[in-house]
Design goal:
This protein has 171 residues and is an all-alpha fold. The chain is 84% helix and 0% strand. It has helices at 2-34, 38-50, 53-75, 87-125, 133-167.
Length: 171
């Protein structure tokens, strides 16, 4: 049991660092840096795709959630109700809920919107798109705004989760 606990904690903490760190990098640095140029956005997204970022990040997020659920199962003796009456249990459960909300927003809303934005940006680079350039530009701006809001919401819930996890044992 002790070896499982150590392995789960390592997986949970390291994958959470990568997941949340990637989200913070994206929300506060990457998106603002490339949002002014559809061409740059398309190039960066293509580069991330080549490096399989969009494959690894969901796997890492899923590992974070699953390892966290197993850790909570172990810590709460099988999700015993009395555990969740304690301040520690409440903090871990609220943190876990925040992480699950971040996961859902990220992969059900932000990711599809960012994918759509990269496709629109690619169409804007096509010389044949000149007649519909104005409509595509409007669509790109609207899609990027929605993706930005969803990404900020994802990061916000991720930060809430990290804060709850960081202090839960000390409550």
């Amino acid at each position: 049991m002790y070896a499982e606990l150590l392995a789960l904690r390592l997986i949970h903490i390291l994958s959470a660092i990568i997941w949340l760190g990637g989200g913070i990098l994206t929300a506060f640095f990457l998106i603002p840096a490339i949002s002014g140029s559809p061409a740059a956005m398309g190039e960066v997204m293509a580069g991330l795709k080549r490096r399989r970022f969009f494959v690894f990040q969901p796997i890492i997020a899923t590992l974070t959630i699953l390892s966290g659920l197993r850790l909570l199962w172990i810590d709460s003796a099988g999700f015993a109700g009395s555990y969740f009456d304690s301040a520690t249990g409440k903090a871990f459960s609220w943190g876990g809920l925040s992480a699950i909300i971040a996961y859902i927003i990220s992969y059900a809303i932000a990711f599809p919107l960012n994918t759509r934005a990269s496709k629109i940006a690619a169409r804007l680079r096509d010389p044949g798109a000149a007649p519909e350039r104005e409509k595509l530009t409007r669509d790109l701006d609207r899609t990027r705004r929605g993706a930005g809001i969803a990404t900020l919401a994802t990061v916000s819930f991720g930060i809430l989760a990290a804060c709850a996890m960081a202090v839960a044992r000390y409550l």
